[in-house]
Each structure stands twice: as C-alpha cells, then as structure tokens.
Amino acid sequence: MKRSSILALTVAALVPLSACGGGGDPLDAETSESEGSAEDGGSTDDDGSTDDGAAGGGDVGEVVVGSANFPENVLLAEIYAAALSDAGVEVSTTLNIGSRETYMAGLEDGSIDLIPEYTGGLATYLNPEITVTSSEEVLAEAQENLPEGLQLLQISEAEDKDSLVVTSETADELGLTSIADLEPHAGDLVLGGPPEFESRPNGVDGLREVYGLEFAQFRSLSAGATLTVQSLVNGQVDVANIFTTDPAIEENDLVVLEDPESLFAAQNVVPLISTEKVNGTVEEALNEVSDALTTENLTEMMVQVVTEGQDPAEVAREFLDENL
After folding, report:
1. Smallest Cα–Cα separation from 95: which of 119, 121, 117, 68?
2. N or C: lower Cβ tally within 10 Å for the chain?
3. What pTM, to 2 d.p., does this model score?
4. According to CATH, what is the number of the domain 12-159+266-323?
5. How confident is the model at residue 224 (pLDDT cuts 50, 70, 90)?
C-alpha cells in the first residue's frame, strides 16, 4: 500500500499529535509565574524565524507557555518558560492542558501564547492529507496551513516520533523487524495507544490504508504514560504506540519496528507561538533552546523525569545551565 493512499483519510481533520493524550481546559491547568520584561522583534521568514523590527516588536507583556498532557511536553514547556524568564520576559505556565484539539483552541483564543510542538503531528492535524515526510517539507507544510496569528520559530534537531513497538519476545516469535511484517499477524494482535491514535490519519486508519493492518482490537491507553509500557510488557496489548524518546524502550528491551512506508512523518520539536508575542528577545531565547536540543539530550532528560522521577522544572533548569 503506497504512502499516497493516506489521502483518503478525511476523517481525521481534528487529530492531535503523536505526542498528546486526552482532553482538558487551559483555564483549569496548573499555572505559575515569573517576572521580567521583553524587547523588540521582527517579521516572519520562510523558516519560521523573524527579522528585527516586525510584528510583535516592543514589550510583548506576559507570555503564557502551555503544554500537552504528557511528561516530555511538560519538560519542554518548562525549558521554554525558564529560557524566556532568563531573557527578562514575564512568563507564566499552563501545563498538562490535554490533546492538540484543546491546546490549539487555547492558542487561537489567547488563553495560552506558546507551546512546544512537533512538526509532523502539527502538519497532519492541519492537513490530514499530508504526504511529505522530511523535516524541511513537513515544516513547510505546517507553516503553510497555520491559523492566522500563529507562527513557528526555529525547529530543533530533537525529534520524538510515533512508533509501533513490540516486546523482543514477540519480535522473535513472529519475525518482526518492520511494521509491514505485522500484516499476516495483525488479526490476532491487540494494538494499544492513546485515544487519538484510533482516529488519526497516521494511527489505526493509516496503518490500515498504508500497511493493510487490521488488528483484532484497539485498546485506548494514556499518551506518554507508563501504563502503555506496562500493558505491553504484561501482555495486555501486543503492539503499542510509544514515542521514540521514551526511556522505557531501552529499559525493557523493546523493539521499535521500522516504518518503510514513512507513515510517521518527521517530528522535530518546534516552538508554536502567537505572532503578537514574538519580538527579538523572545525569538532569540527560543532559538537558542532549539539550537541546544538534540534527540540524545532530550532522551537523557526523559530518563531523569520518567525513570528517576525528577521535577521537570529542575531538569529544565539544569539543561539550560549546562547548554545556554
């Protein structure tokens, strides 16, 4: 089944990321503040950056940083907030908002101003018929379809992709190395993932269209939570949608199946921000974060947060002190 067959999937116009779980209201989420001020700003270039002197110039006031409701996104939001505060910008945080549908609504109604995003998930949410997969093409696709008043800044090298994961025992027993290898077995297997994975174009529907997979059952699990890994290890699900930076993959000797048809597009971490909150100070601070983030150091920080149980704000502080 070719990648272009995903074009038929019009059902998922309101799909969240890989990276996002259930609902929530920004007004009900956790909030904290730090004091500061901001400087001049600029206009948008093709790569999502801005030039000095354009929209958002001058003091942008308080910037409300939001996050989706899974640990990695909370960590990234804490990094963004601390970097902006260090630069003298007044910041507050609204964490664990929920899925993409919820936090995109918050960005559009102004209840939050900035959120860590993932290019592929955002691009697919904005256009379910997306067929491009490379980092540059996916970024361009996302930028082209952004709602008015929002913009993407510089993408980072750090990438956290959706993946299908099985235990090493299952991989050995069924001879699995890629998603395509699941085709003769899927009818006997239970697939687990976040609720949104059942309807997103690169989820259950995409697996059916692109790889011809018809699983026996889909079991809804929390995004980015230990429940998914536990369900896989305990045999409650046979295949699971797990983010590639999850330290539990290595800790449990799990096998990430290759994606030869590129169902899962590039997922570079990128700041998504209200244009009116962009000035030179804000952009420079967030671009420095993007310059410093890599998949490797993001995965290391996730070990600290998820495995060791450290406070995401403290891990964010340590990252900034060491890298900026």
Report:
1. 68
2. C
3. 0.74
4. 3.40.190.10
5. low
